[in-house]
Write a structure and sequence with these properties.
By secondary structure, the chain is an alpha+beta fold. It is built from 5 helices and 7 strands, in the order H-E-H-H-E-E-E-E-E-H-E-H.
């Protein structure tokens, strides 16, 4: 029984640690070869993991590097799930592209009442 407390299937652990919403999504990612355990590609969802293993996988645009600290017994709340691992991923670089705070300020968006009057006057002059 103590053996079950120190080992767990990879797909189940990814689900317990809340990296994937469902266990079947986690299993599909592992089966596709998108998860590495200690540097080697894990192609079986039943790959056994133990504390101390390092997982590498992509989530969205980021590459996550996770060290397993504990094996969970259930899929609990997020604070409990965060105790199961240590994130070794480098922090994401801050994006230099920043959307404008007020798009109307740059001449985009709906024209103001004053702008509409100017447009109407210019159209009327153009028709004369």
């Amino acid at each position: 029984m103590s053996e079950a407390a120190t080992k767990l299937r990879l797909d189940k652990w990814l689900w317990h640690a809340r990296f994937f919403k469902t266990r079947s999504l986690a299993a599909a990612r592992v089966q596709a070869g998108a998860v590495r355990v200690n540097g080697s590609v894990a192609q079986k969802r039943a790959t056994i993991i133990v504390p101390g293993d390092v997982l590498t996988f992509a989530m969205g645009d980021d590459i996550r590097v996770i060290q397993i600290d504990g094996i969970g017994t259930r899929r609990g709340p997020a604070p409990e799930a965060q105790e199961l691992y240590t994130d070794l991923s480098p922090p994401a670089p801050k994006s230099e592209k920043k959307p404008p705070e007020n798009p109307a300020f740059e001449g985009k968006g709906r024209p103001s009442k004053r702008d509409r009057r100017v447009l109407d006057l210019s159209r009327a002059r153009h028709l004369e």
